[in-house]
Write a structure and sequence with these properties.
heterodimer, A: 347 residues, Nucleotidyltransferase, domain 5, five-stranded mixed beta sheet, 10 helices, B: 159 residues, alpha/beta, Rossmann fold, 7 strands, 25% strand
């Protein structure tokens, strides 16, 4: 079954065609990350009108790269939330129109489910059940993934997402954008044990995250550090980056591994933009080897927002008998717990 | 109209939440809190308290809107928690549709509101956060509009 997936939940306009929720025929993302602001931010392509401008060419390119025509599509999956209402609306109404005209099913998809299932776009896939860490600028959550559509949220950030902490610390250090990439690169030249930034493990049993404390700790440290006279024992900016990254990675790895143990899963998965971080991947790989479990991560282009993962999630929703009603609307807030459970048809 | 003003010090995140809760309990639809202060000064903690004061269910987690630009919550009044942090210009703010939230009948808490003060409605109550030391924050409320004055007066009355 050929499913077209469309995502306009945040900055990027993306579309992809996936066969049977597994085989990617195309994945096209219109992103402007390369365009920088003078003050170091990205030009967010969040404006509805930007999505409006991009959605037609992005979908056309996704189809042409897939070597398909509209008539070859069996369904259209579209992100309905969570996200920015104005941006989501562009994707939804475009998809509604297209599905109506072609007379094919329209499938509403939760963006978070897209990330959880993004690993299925790869050749090597985990068996259910597994635990998944989705970690990006907007989310940091751990799920127990028991099957398609069958997820338990085990922990989540109570304040800042991990990717946001990277971006903000990059800004504190006066570095460029995107923060995650810049800090990862700089950290290669630094000592990760130079500064002992706080790790917020919260209560002993908690699988929740808190990254606002470390952001504040780095801000206070850098303030004092800037006034410090240069000397042999003064930490370098690379030391700060490395020590910060180490603190964040420590927490992510420890909590994911506790979660895995708790449910007895044999595999761990990491997805979302921060899953591109090599330090995080290396540490998770070590931890998995130590516990003798498997570790999976999607390639970078499936980690960041993309339409292919929406198509994959939509495929399983369609198998589950889900189709959009004409009155379907977007949802700014859309917790994973609100998803319909699987009926068994999809398994 | 003379500027109304009141200043507090908090000595922990929990105290910042407590102050937010007191303010939140005084708010109604249409109110706008314009938050300003450097990274780590307690703006999101304060907003967690405002949410409690607005009777948003306690199992709802108030997270940072820096990435999503706006988070919406349902309470006694809807809460629109906005953040101008990663926007590059006022025109981006407007084209993202964020300006509309000021007039949607809910309570708006906007972080980094000092970036484009001209966009804020007159009735705004400004809330400025200053880091004094690792734990201590100075939080100042001020505004020129009668509605801001009303909130400040009520805050002063309740110790």
């Amino acid at each position: 079954m050929n499913i077209l997936g469309i995502d306009t939940s945040c900055d990027d306009t993306s579309a992809g065609v996936v066969v049977d929720g597994r085989r990617v025929l195309s994945s096209v993302v219109h992103s402007q990350v390369e365009l920088h602001h003078p003050h170091g931010g990205v030009v967010p392509e969040l404006a509805s009108r930007e999505h409006l401008k991009n959605i037609l060419p992005v979908v056309q390119e996704a189809l042409s790269k897939a070597g398909l025509r509209m008539a070859d599509l069996d369904g259209i999956a579209v992100t309905v939330g969570p996200g920015l209402v104005g941006s989501l609306l562009v994707g939804l109404y475009y998809a509604k129109g297209l599905a109506y005209v072609r007379g094919i099913p329209l499938i509403p998809v939760n963006h978070l489910e897209g990330h959880i299932l993004s690993i299925f776009l790869e050749e090597e896939v985990p068996e259910f059940p597994f635990v998944a860490l989705t970690v990006s600028g907007g989310h940091t959550s751990i799920y127990h993934v028991k099957g398609y559509g069958d997820y338990d949220l085990m922990g989540q950030t109570l304040d800042d997402a991990a990717g946001e902490a990277f971006d903000k610390v990059a800004k504190i250090l006066g570095l460029g954008y995107p923060g995650g990439v810049v800090i990862e690169k700089l950290a290669l030249d630094g000592r990760k044990d130079r500064i002992d930034f706080p790790r917020a493990y919260l209560s002993k049993d908690s699988l929740d995250f808190s990254f606002s404390g470390i952001k504040t700790a780095v801000a206070l440290f850098v303030k004092a550090w800037r006034n410090e006279a240069a000397g042999n024992d003064k930490p370098t900016i690379a030391d700060i980056a490395a020590s910060f990254q180490e603190a964040v990675v420590d927490v992510l790895v420890r909590k994911l591994m506790i979660a895995r143990k708790r449910v007895g899963a044999r595999a761990i998965v990491v997805a979302g933009g921060v899953a591109c971080n090599r330090c995080l991947r290396a540490r998770l790989s070590e931890a998995a080897a130590q516990d003798a479990v498997e570790f999976f991560f999607p390639r970078p282009e499936y980690c960041t927002d993309n339409g292919a993962m929406i198509a994959a999630a939509g495929y399983h929703r369609l198998l589950n008998g889900e189709r959009a009603q004409p009155s379907l609307d977007v949802r700014a807030r859309y917790p994973i717990g609100d998803l319909l459970p699987p009926t068994g048809r999809g398994k | 109209m003379k500027e109304a003003r009141v200043r507090y010090r908090t000595y922990s995140d929990q105290e910042t939440i407590g102050l937010g809760r007191r303010v939140g309990a005084l708010l109604r639809g249409g109110d706008v809190l314009a938050l300003a202060g450097e990274l780590g000064s307690g703006k999101t903690w304060f907003t967690k308290g405002v949410a409690v004061g607005l009777e948003i269910p306690s199992d709802t987690i108030i997270t940072s809107p820096s990435f999503t630009l706006v988070n919406e919550y349902e309470g006694r009044w809807p809460l629109y928690h906005m953040d101008a942090y990663r926007l590059g210009s006022l025109s981006e703010f407007v084209s993202a549709g964020l300006e509309e939230y000021f007039y949607m009948g809910g309570v708006v808490v906007m972080e980094w509101a000092d970036r484009w003060p001209e966009i804020l409605p007159d009735l705004k109550l400004k809330v400025e956060f200053v880091i004094l030391d690792e734990f201590t924050r100075e939080i100042t409320f001020s505004g020129n509009h009668p509605r801001a004055g009303e909130i400040v007066e009520k805050l002063k009355k309740e110790p």
